Amino acid sequence: MCASLFSYVNKHLHAMDFDLVSMCASLFHVNKHLHAMDFDLVSMCASLFSYVNKHLHAIDFDLVSMCASLFTNVNKHLHAMDFDLVSMCASLFSYVNKHLHAMDFDLV
User: Fold this and answer.
1) What are the sequence ranges of the domains in the chain?
2) What pLDDT score was predicted for residue 95?
3) Does the global pTM surpass 0.70?
């Protein structure tokens, strides 16, 4: 799952300026602690990236920063084993919408 997500990201981002190994480790950390939830973080991320790429093909959108922010936010919320998926998703969508303020586009 992790490999396919980052393979997808690599395919669409030619100039990578984030640490793939750290992000991969972060994703496994999330899955370890959320194993009992009916929720697949990798699928959610892949769907989000696919949706964003489909609708943003012509604008200057920093997907690398968004991706890095997602995993930074995950690590911060997992520090105390009190992970709030809704808050994390809301933060991500807020970040994306902030960078899309010039478009008539609602990611959520």
Assistant:
1) 1-13+41-108
2) 56
3) no
